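User: I'm putting together a teaching handout on how sequence relates to shape, and I'd like one worked example. Could you take RimJ/RimL family protein N-acetyltransferase from Sphingopyxis panaciterrulae, show the sequence you're using, and then write out its predicted structure as tokens right after it?

Assistant: Happy to. First the sequence, then the structure tokens directly below it.
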Amino acid sequence: MTAPTLPTARLVLRQLRLDDAEALFPVLSDADLMTWWSSGPHASVEQTRDYLRFNAATEQGHLCWAITEASADRALGWVTLIDRRPGVAEIGYILNRGHWGGGIAREAVAAVIDFAFARHGLRRVYADTDPDNCGSVALLERLGFQREGRLRGEWETHIGVRDSLIFGLLRSEWPALTER
């Protein structure tokens, strides 16, 4: 399934493509940013391209949007929505460090949540994040996600075995829908 284009006030979220590899290599090669990702920093653009093959695929049971500014079609990061079971999906995101602090991640993730509840028909969206990823935890809390639990020793990653915090958001809790 191809991710539909989602315009916002400042952004255009569009289907992630293989040709986004060059723009996303600085993100995926950033060792500090990749600390909390499921894989280590990339060593080459070709590694990023290989990684994007799955994420950009339209037949994998997930939707993946490149985050771009409305004025330029250059990927700054992405948001993914992975169908896990009927009515439930997991959301994930990554953003180039140079664009942190300006509300871009919040705007992009909120657009995907709007889509998930209003157009994709989901009842629940959840996120899985490392307990030490303070930026991601803060973003989820600002968006109204509730901390639902901690899974101890859940992931074996490039930095070792890590716990996982699970955050959930129900359609009835999403302010963008209830304020309409």
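A couple of points you could highlight for students: The two ends are 28 Å apart (CA to CA). DSSP finds five helices and eight strands in the chain.
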